[in-house]
Predict the structure.
Amino acid sequence: MKDLTNEVIVHKDVNGVQYIQFKKLLEYTEIQHCFTLKHQGLNFKKYDDENSPLELSYEKISEVFNWNPNQIVKPHQTHTDRVEVVYDSEKIWNEVDGLITNQKNLVLCTTEADCTGLIFYDPVCKVIGNVHSGWRGTLQRIGQKAVKKMINEYHSDPKNIICCICPHIRKCHFEVEDDVKELFEKEFSADIEIEQFITVGKSIDKDGVKVQKYFIDTTLLNKMMLQKEGLREENIIDSGMCTVCESDQFHSYRVDGALSGRNATMIEIKE
Ligand SMILES: [Zn+2]
C-alpha cells in the first residue's frame, strides 16, 4: 500500500478499510473523523441499482468507528450554498451541501469526487461542520457561509475554529475555459488579485476555433475566504493532496468520468 501520510495527515488501514485523518483533529479525543479512500470497493456514490456498494460501504466505515449507520446524516448535495443545523438523523436534507451541529452521536457526512470537503471543528463551543464545496459551491462561498452559521447559531469565535481541507482537485488539474474562468474572476477579483488564483494554460484548436484554457486555484480561494471570515492561518489545515494526481487512491470525476465513485468526508462528536 502506498502510504499517503504527510506532515498534516495520517493514512490508516483498518481491516482493509482505508482512510486519512488530520493530525490536528486527532488531538481532540471527543471527536472522530475521516476522509475515505477507494480501495476494496469503498464507494459512497448513490446508484439506482440494487448492486450498489453504498450500503456496504457505510457498514464497513461504521464498523471502524463504532457507529450505527442510522447515526449518519447524508444530505442530498446539489452544489448549493445551503448550510443547515442538524438536530437529528431522521430528517431528509434536500438541496443542502453543508451541515453543522453541536449534538453528539450525529455523523455529518458529505461525499466527493474531486470536490472539496471542508471539515470544521470549534473545540471551545464543541461544534462540528462538514461542507461539500465543489467549484460551484466555492463560487457561492459555501465554506465562508458555514463559518458565519457557526458564529450565528452557536456563538463560535472564528479564532477558535479549525478547518481541514480534504483532498480535492487542485490547481494542477482544475482546468477550465472562459465561461467558468469569468465566473471566478467576477466573484473574487475584489478580494484577491486575479493572477494569484488563475493561471493561463494552453490554447487548443476546437473545430477550427481557438479555445483558451485556464487553471483555477480553488484551494487558495477557500483559504482566503476562511481567513476573511476570521479563521487563523494556522487553523486552516490543507491536506495538500490532489484527487486527480492520486486517482489510484481516491475516486476522481475528472479521471473516471460519469462512472466515478465517491469518497466520504465524515465527522462526529462522540458520546
Ligand atoms: Zn493534480
